[in-house]
Amino acid sequence: MNEKPIIIETAKDGRDNEEKKIDGILLEPENPPTTAPKKEQGDREFQEKQHEQAVNFVEGHRNVLEHYARGAISIAPSPKGLNTFAFDLEKNTIYINSMFYKELGLSDERTLFASMHEIEHFLEKKQILAEKGGSIKFKKYLDRIKKSRAFALTDNCVADIHVNKTVISKTNESLAGVEKGMYTEVLFKERDFTEAPKHIQFAQALLRESRVSDEECVVAEDVREKMEKIKSMKGKSGLSLIDVMTSPSTTMSDRLALQDKFIMPIIEELKEKDIEEEKEKRKQKKEQQEKQKQKSEKEKGEEGEDMKNDDEGGDDNKDDPTKGDKTKPEKGGKNESKGEGDEDLNENFDPNEFWKESYDKADKTTPRAVSQEDIDKAIEEYEKATKAKVKSEKEIQEELDKEYAENIGVKKEDLQQYRKLVKELEKVVNPETNRNVIEELRDLIAKIISKRKKKKTDPKYPVEEGDELVEPGELVAEVKKGNFTPKVWETHELKEKADNKFGEIEITFVGDRSTSMKEGRKLTEQQKSIVMAMEALKEFSDICKEERTNLTKPLEIKSEIYSFQSSEKDDKTPIKAMSPELSEADRIKTASKLASCTGSTMDFVPLETIMSNLDETSKKKILAGELKKIVIIFTDGESDDSDRVIKVLKTLRESGVVAVGVGVTESGKQTLLTYAPDAKLAETADKLPIILGELLKEHLSVV
């Protein structure tokens, strides 16, 4: 379903303060942890403790981080002495140091989000470098950042929208709350940007309103006009320009192209307005200074006449310190200094320097991870490495896949085949609804969770006092009788709606590995179908665990997978045992096992094993409505012993188990009789995933 799945440093902003930066995220701690190592403890001890915490964080969250990276890069703790993040392009490894965030007092959740944010930035840069002529493109991009702080700020704002969308799309929506808190509580506590130049207002408001859609920023009127114009732009697909430009599927090259076409012209136009407004301010200031100068000269002239008259009258003021020549400026006084803003905005005007303070302030909300020099150096090292050891994209991916497969304990070939099957699932469309089967299953899961969150308000009536007066006439009558506490009120109690929800779901899939499954695409489509089911159940199980405390009745999802061929011993042993766990390694190994076939249709063996494992406790839970147990069997031919199948099906169904047979192609028509009345037929192999999707929707919709 939804896979959670150039040395570059993340550093301080260069000032001696308490701020720490994540690329695109500035976080300020309220209570720095007391466990953070202090530099005063000595460099060696500091580095030891810092390295220890980096290792503990990476090892404690390796599964999440590696699963997020999906084998595209390797994850490792930062080595001793490196107190930030770093990325080695040659080794294709990101080095993580959680102390960079722990010093801020961040929770593991925020530290993980920030780490994934950084991983995504690196992946974006890695992607553009992998393109044909990528190094040249990236050098031009870096040159633009170096030359124009307006471009650098705007690019970082748009990139952060893209990166954070991608992080959330690869994980789950619960992280959206983490991100929103960063923007509303830390990055942009104030959303009034009117003190900044207009082109900076636009860039910052675009980022904030894109990530906090329910809060509008305060900007200049003409900036708001440009904002609304951009928001209203839509493509042929109906998606807005911003959504297309910052979609997780949009490459960095395409994003930059759209950015240059639609966003940067607005930035340049607003920047020109900022310059014109500054010129007008300076013109007015100059006029005021000129008027003040004329006024001063006039006053000095009048004062000179008075002094002349005094001199003609004698030397009475000769020794008076309050009299004398007042026109001579004092050393270091205003008349000797150049007034602020006196210089003209001519062709030598440098906006980077002029608005330096405004850019610096804006950079606190969208700081760049490293200095320009470090990135330039990293690119040079990358080019040297690629020239010294040129590898094709396929060779690089092969190495990454091999390393990732070894980390999770599967074969590289099995990993690659599994990814291929998952990708093919994106093309499986239900012809009746014209919707992707995976999306339909996701909708079903969302509805199940939503239903379990609902509660109803039960009225309690009558009572002596409460929420609502429901019998006003009775109240008057009773009061006249002298009863001042009549039971004519209605109160409300919040109670869980009784709807017989299941607390456990157990689903078993039984695959056909008889020799006849080699014909056409039967084996592959069966494999794909079970992969789809495993992905759906994995996502369903994860959501149930995450929402456990929010549900009126928690739900646990368990699964197991069998197959049958010619070995009774093998057919009795599940490929994946019944449990709530369904790891990536489990799913890959299962798919690999289902890729081979040799033997006959001994479907009764796993069915009898399932029945024998059904203990009395489970039977009672089924009858009590606490456990829903579903068994789905695939078969493409007549059973080796139909009577045994019919007999065990009868026993299972009498015990409350839902047992459904799915015939694979026309050769599996016998399934409709053997597994009656619960049987389906996929006339062609490619319909198998659709049939399974319908079965899952049918039997899970009532949980």
CATH class of the largest domain: Alpha Beta
Structural class of the secondary structure composition?
A: alpha/beta
Strand order of the largest sheet: 13-12-11-14-15-16
Largest sheet features: 6 strands, mixed
How many helical stretches?
26
Secondary-structure arrangement, i.e. CATH architecture of the largest domain: 3-Layer(aba) Sandwich
The overall strand count is 16
Mean pLDDT metric: 78
CATH topology name of the largest domain: Rossmann fold
Alpha-carbon distance between the two ends:
20 Å
Low-confidence runs of at least 5 consecutive residues: 1-41, 316-343, 494-499
Describe what this molecule looks like in 3D:
The chain has 703 residues and is α/β, with parallel strands linked by helices. The protein folds into 5 domains: 1-130, no CATH class; 132-307 and 381-386, no CATH class; 394-422; 456-495, no CATH class; 504-700, von Willebrand factor, type A domain (Rossmann fold, 3-Layer(aba) Sandwich). The protein contains 26 helices and 16 strands. Helix 6 runs parallel beside helix 8 (198-211), helix 6 (149-170) packs antiparallel against helix 11 and helix 17 runs parallel beside helix 26 (688-700). The longest helix has 61 residues, at 252-312. The chain is elongated, with a radius of gyration of 36 Å.
